[in-house]
Sequence to fold (340 residues):
Amino acid sequence: MTEDELIKHIIRVALKDNPTSMNQDLRINLKTKKFLKGVNNLSDISDDYLHYELNTLQNTQPWIHDLKPKHQDEIEGITSLIFKLKLDYMPELINYSNFIPDPVLEFKNEWLRLIHNRHDIQCLKYKNFNAEHWGSSPKEALDNILKAASLLAKEKLSQQQLSALLTNKSKELTDKDIFDLISVHPQLSLNIRPRKVILNFYARNIPKQCLIVENMDTYHYLQDKLPVDWMLVYGFGNRVTKSDVSNLDIVDLHASREVSDHIKQACYDLWSDIQGDKLYWGDLDDKGNQIFESLKNQYPALRKWQPAYDAMEKRKHLSMATFTDVHQESILIRDLGLAD
Fold:
């Protein structure tokens, strides 16, 4: 909504339900939101009459007193009066009219007008796009959407690459934006290159058990301290919760340099087995619990590593309620009942 439209809205609010109004047609037009026609009719109303309307409204609309120009009698013409209101009282106009500018809504409306004015049937399918993610203006957004389709037709690109190429921000385009694009151009779905997640792992032998830990220090600390047939994975906090994390086309498992090739392959097999025996150990806090629950959706057999959680609960109990959360780095090997 422009400032001029806002002023028209203010006048509509000021004049509605005013029993003393002599111009019933004008009041009805404004009240029924036909204010464009109504404001055009203001040119037929004398300055004196409009000033009279403003004065009489002070009794029924107390806020109009604050909008009365300080030198109202010196103002000539409707245009001057509106200008004076805009100049001195714009914050009050916005406040009293309960008008809250909604840039997103305005952008959306302009976007819909743009695509409906195009004769390209394909463009009409873009109406549900979050156009503000694709460009700083509706026209730029449409240009970028068409450019994205053209780029993907030529080579595979990730969501982040597309976003950086089109908006100069690698995280501007969301999963929904890419889904919207593919829904209109399904033939491009295979050209969206998934962004791989990098996770680190360590193993001394062919693994029968996999332990996933939340934090880096614990990952390094536990190496050479776990049973020899365990695989240890550093989950990088909530990075490990990425969708399809068991899929080795999505996840890049990087082995520590001590891990031999034949052990690496066994670790890959265990990781991609969603029913394989896996344990999780994270911080004793909301985030740690959320990571476990999210990861369990992908590995139904996943269990918490109970000795570690028992040790954290014990540390929390001994703190006499001083600790609300317990971080796994505070737990040493002796606390877990394993030989140091």
Notes: Confidence is low (pLDDT under 50) at residues 15-43, 57-79. The first strand starts at residue 197 and ends at 203. Residues 3-96 form one domain. Residues 18 and 24 are 9 Å apart (CA to CA).
